[in-house]
Amino acid sequence: MRIVILGAPGSGKGTQAAFIKETYQIAHISTGDLLRAHVRNGTPLGLKAKSVMEAGQLVSDELVLGMLADRLAADDTRNGFILDGYPRNLIQVAALDELLASVGQPLDIAVKLTVPFDIIVGRCEIRFKAEGRKDDNPDVVRERLRIYSDQTEPVVAAYRAAGRLVEIDGVGQVAEITQRIQDTLKPYA
Q: What is the number of H-type helices and E-type strands within the chain?
């Protein structure tokens, strides 16, 4: 099973990706974690990424795709994977499709967790007060949601147009949302 999980920051992607990983015994590939691991381990791709990040720039799509290609070659991806945090724009959608075709692992489904932005801001505000995470500050969250709308919503539209998108109501108890996802993924297991 090869899945992309989509949703706005704070929609519960990480929580649900962990469930999918455990339930279906597939690799959870977070591009953010992947990037940090390459930098921490001093790989050639990580060194390139580090120099870009230290210059205050965004890591290129090409560099992230190279890291992703390396990761997809690992043994634990043979049963499938869930991509979290990628693709984030239409260029990445095309690049991912090309990469997956070249390794013989085409995408099965894109799952989007749909949560109204006001609920996301509320969730993150609670977490901000409890944990003090700077990225959960309501003003920061609103800006991240704006960027998500501008950049990632076209990805959702592309997967919808390709007939590969399933939208899941991401509001409710974690177990309820998990059950919705499980019901959706049954045909792909």
A: 9, 5
CB 68 within 8 A of CB 34: yes
Q: Distance (Å, rounded) from C-alpha 20 to C-alpha 169?
A: 16
What are the residues facing 61 on neighbouring strands? none
CATH code, 64: 3.40.50.300
pTM score of the predicted model: 0.88
User: Positive or negative CA dihedral for 70, 75, 81, 82?
Assistant: negative
Residue 9's pLDDT is what?
87
**DSSP symbol at 103:** T
Residue 5 confidence (pLDDT): 97
Q: Domain span at residue 13?
A: 2-188
How many domains does the chain fold into? 1
Q: DSSP letters along 17-42, please?
A: HHHHHHHHT-EEEEHHHHHHHHHHHT
How high is the pLDDT of residue 162? 96
